[in-house]
Write a structure and sequence with these properties.
320 residues, single chain, Rossmann fold, alpha/beta, globular, disordered N terminus, 34% helix
């Protein structure tokens, strides 16, 4: 990541060139309305019977920015060719909507996929898997215990399982190398009304940078103090909710990630090992956030493994 703040480093889970921009246009649905806010999902690959396995893609952006349109082509295209339907969801963004409301949207999105998917796009409600990058990886890991029934399998790309740790709740040395964002500027780029879909041009990245410089992300996104109310955060930390019933998971993370520490995926892998959840951790040596700085062949190899993992997961009998 360059020293000057690059909004793509956290807004996107991949470099822009890897988004699914050349894929045929998806069908767009409103899966929920909340507080006057329409929350949408883009569906790729719908078609005639038989029913198809479904990947729910969850975008990144620190829960503050991001869009359902940011689907990595390295996942989308090979999965479409394998007969998947891909449902890329929006959700209400922070700080206008706090974390409990965001998790409500996550649950409602999966319920919509299972209840409406068979009729709308021939999705198979028994073969739903989830994947996401960065904050989307966090929400993917959340879906492993807060969605009922949980997805059949999870792919977390540079995601995280603990939102109260010092990396998020204390001033960040990396982001503090950049010029300080004044509180007045940070507040000016966000609002009060719920929002799930942002205009093409916005400056919400300045709010995120402010949060990381001050160590305020948990307070601004959750509306709670992680030091004074640690127990409240139990329900929102995947690391604290792993049991033997957790879905199989693939974790992908670069060791030089300056936005989400590699340790976050290592901690999840360690917890999975303790309770014997089937999992795999792919460590990308020297990789930054979104695997920035990694050679293209290595990135292609990592994504090929993710595609294979998802294919395998929907081909297994339920519970294996």
């Amino acid at each position: 990541m360059p020293m000057n703040f690059d909004r793509r480093a956290f807004l996107a889970v991949l470099p822009a060139r890897a988004w699914a921009q050349s894929t045929p246009a998806p069908a767009t649905f409103v899966y929920k309305r909340a507080g006057g806010c329409e929350i949408k999902a883009d569906v790729y690959g719908s078609g005639p019977p038989p029913r198809k396995p479904v990947l729910v893609w969850i975008h990144g952006g620190a829960l503050i920015v991001g869009s359902r349109r940011q689907v990595p082509a390295r996942l989308l295209n090979p999965l479409l060719a394998s007969g998947f339907v891909i449902v890329s969801i929006d959700y209400r963004l922070a700080p206008e909507t706090k974390l409990p409301g965001i998790i409500e949207d996550l649950k409602d999105a999966f319920a919509w996929v299972r209840e409406q998917g068979p009729a709308l796009f021939n999705g198979d409600p028994a073969r739903v898997v989830a994947a996401g990058g960065s904050a989307g990886g966090y929400l993917t890991l959340m879906s492993g215990f807060c969605v009922a029934p949980p997805p059949r399998a999870l792919v977390s790309l540079w995601g995280y399982g603990d939102i109260t740790g010092p990396w998020y709740s204390r001033p960040d040395p990396f982001y503090n190398r950049q010029p300080e964002v004044p509180i007045e500027e940070a507040r000016a780029v966000v609002g009060q009304a719920p929002v799930a879909e942002l205009p093409d041009k916005h400056d919400r990245g300045r709010f995120y940078l402010y949060c990381r410089q001050k160590g305020l992300w948990p307070r601004e996104v959750a509306g709670r103090d992680p030091d004074a109310e640690s127990k409240w955060f139990d329900a929102y930390c995947p690391l604290r909710n792993v049991t033997s019933a957790y879905p199989p998971a693939l974790l992908i993370h670069g060791t030089n990630d300056t936005d989400v520490p590699y340790e976050q995926s290592a901690l999840m892998a360690r917890r999975f090992e303790q309770v014997r959840v089937r999992h795999e951790l792919i460590t990308v040596e020297g990789g930054g956030h979104g695997l920035s700085g990694t050679d293209t062949p290595e990135v292609d190899k990592v994504y090929a493994r993710a595609v294979g993992f998802l294919r395998e997961s929907v081909s297994r009998p339920l519970g294996q």
